[in-house]
């Protein structure tokens, strides 16, 4: 196979393929810590480079793995069985901003935060905002159909895709609206095609915001309160849940004790016109007053930024709690969230595991985190038992294995809990139509 990589390098000419050990190691894993193997890493500078690499790899039957920032929690970008990693990190141009049409075209190596920072001075924003937005790429967001805290009001990545320029497994370039075959690319985890650029819908910045954190006694209370609020006409743009253990980690990480009182928390943001925000905030304040709930509301932009900093500090604060973070992002019907939280904490306790919960409770997406250490084999066995029981319960509750992190390599063996054999066979057939040789990100979701 190494001879094949050398032959591939000759075929693609000036496009350098890095084969040094440190490149092959650095690009062999993602945020899961799972490691694969690759024989080289290539950094295309544009569409022509990317298409050439894929076309020649296909002709030589060399597997290829498209990679953004490697922030995924399901192993979707982890290479396996050799082949090459195609990193999009040098393709990060903002190609065009069309304010009349309300669109922006970007290369998929662009980091989500960089896009937001570009749009804001122009009076616009791109709604999908995953927690990893400071480092994750637009291409990775498309591959996983990412959502984020604003997904409750604004929806997930798929909603904002107007058209894609993408490359088939054979190296053909296609420019098309997100209809027909291209409709299958969002959420396909890079197994059906390689996206070079995307035309995205953008929205005018809201005129006003109001950000509030509400303290509840228990996790179950938080879920009930969230449901009750929605039933009386409360419509926030953000509705997040943070359990007490997670908030303790965040408070210690950020060196603040404002929210370290042992309770669970709901994080709300309302946006829109000034009149709408005021009306919605009155609903929230009246509800909290009637229920005798403590709340903290940002008085200005500085305090709003501080509250958001707490929310976005969850992942880095948890990183201090263990060498290995097993992160499952289940999604459930809203009415089952309280039961799910009870089940999760009870099961983790019975198995002696250190569990932390947070998530986008507005759209039923819970992030279940077990902090552990892969070197402790017996503890990892208990963690595997927990995950198996978690997914069985999710299936029983008619939920899904993933809300936004994808299936990758970590969840592929659990797909039969959700899908029938007929559905899994259909997915394989779809994969074979898009990728007849099985070279594009093999071993992942649609290869199951």
Helix share, percent? 25-40%
User: Could you name the ranges where pLDDT drops below 50 across 5 or more consecutive residues?
Assistant: none
Order of the strands making up the biggest sheet: 15-12-14-13-17-18-16
| Rg on CA atoms, Å | 22 Å
How would you sum up this structure, described in words?
This protein has 448 residues and is an alpha+beta fold. It has 14 helices and 18 strands. The chain has four domains: 2-89, Uridine Diphospho-n-acetylenolpyruvylglucosamine Reductase, domain 2; 94-204, 2-Layer Sandwich (Uridine Diphospho-n-acetylenolpyruvylglucosamine Reductase, domain 3), CATH 3.30.465; 208-316, Alpha-Beta Plaits; 322-411, 2-Layer Sandwich (Alpha-Beta Plaits). The protein starts with a helix and ends in a 14-residue tail after the last helix. Helix 7 (219-231) runs antiparallel to helix 12 (337-350) and helix 12 runs antiparallel to helix 13. It has a seven-stranded antiparallel sheet with strand order 15-12-14-13-17-18-16, with helices on both faces. Strands 5-6-10-8-9 form a five-stranded antiparallel sheet.
